[in-house]
Design a protein that fits this description.
It contains three helices and eight strands. It has 145 residues and is α+β, with helices and mostly antiparallel strands. The chain has a six-stranded antiparallel sheet with strand order 2-3-4-8-7-5. A two-stranded antiparallel sheet has the order 1-6.
Amino acid sequence: MRPSIERLLSTALLAAALTLASCSGIPLAQRQSARLHRYEAYAGKPVHEFTWNTGYKSWSPLARDKLLVWTDLDQPYLVTVFHPCTDLMFARHIGITSTVNTVQARFDFVTADGWRCMISTIQPIDYRRMQRDAHRPKAAGKTQR
């Protein structure tokens, strides 16, 4: 039961942070750029493919040509598509092609509002390290008091 409470708490904190960020005076383009840079900092070396069991859980556009894809295995990937492509930031409908639950770079596509954008690179995100690093300053501040 404990992991569920921690997950709910971290989700609630993330939602609160996003809400505050959206109300801030920081322009949208700067917030989006900061978010992209944060994920790029934790992106591993490109891999040829990734697999899911039943499908991807969610996606989130990070840039005109970059998409964060969460698999059903709770693993995020930074997917980059070749140019030219529609602006992924404003696509209403996004899908990803796959073969036998496997998405391959230079073979599969991100489909976005009628466009077929070939996947250039796939990079796994070290999300656990990203979360640990996000909590480090808080933990350090508590020990100094």
